[in-house]
Design goal:
Helix content is about 40%, strand content about 20%. Strands 3-8-7-4-5-6 form a six-stranded mixed beta sheet. A five-stranded parallel beta sheet has the order 2-1-9-10-11, with helices on both faces. Strand 10, helix 9 and strand 11 form a beta-alpha-beta unit. Helix 3 runs parallel beside helix 4. The longest helix is centred in the middle third of the chain and has 16 residues. The protein starts with 5 loop residues before the first strand and ends with a helix.
Amino acid sequence: MGHGRRVILTRPSSDSLAWVNGLQQAHYQVMHWPLIDIAPVQHTQSIHDMAASASSCQAIMFVSRNAVTHAFAAGLQVAKENGPRYWVTGPGTRQALLDSGVPAARIDAPPADAIQFDTEALWQQVQRQVQAHQTVWILRGADADHTESAMEGVGRDWLMQQLLKAGVPVKTLAVYQRVCPHWDPAQVALATAAASDGSVWVFTSSQAIAHLKQLLPEVSWHATKAIATHDRIAQAAVQLCVGNVVVCKPALSELLSSLESLA
């Protein structure tokens, strides 16, 4: 159990409630410092146009829970039985689809016991059902400056390559923005201290790590302990020179086990 040990969650606020509650119940001191703020995109007409044509595509892939939330808020409707499949890579995004009214039988995702929740695991589930010449939409987020994080794009680009090799047209659309938060001097001081005081940072996005570097450009991370929810995110943490990085699946039970291993 945590016995008051500090854990810093950096995932967006909309994704963190269950983890905050679970960690507190396990007696960890939880600091929720989101390193990605989520904002709507300005080109809502593009989302409306996609939603209007979605029934004719073979699948819609959602890269995150936020992609589900913002797409349905902008007008995407659950298609009829002969409509598209809904693809996700993780349990949180799958739950967001269920909450939006998508039947479980229409959702393709890695199994609950998958070694990793990523596009490679998703591809193992869908590759036999894809049909050439029928579009797949990928709904994603975009950085506020309209540049893509190379680390964040790896998984999505890999999936696009597999689809294109299979003769499947791919269309992508940003349905929300990832924005670097603003930290005041007090928050900067707290985070600087947490880089070396034994706190465990939990990273669920390499974009969050990029924002951390932007917010604290002079801080040394050599004494920091961190948990990353994917190998690619761990690589970004290593590039930040985080001293001790453990990888676990993005599930509360796995996070708790990893925290015990770092004790």
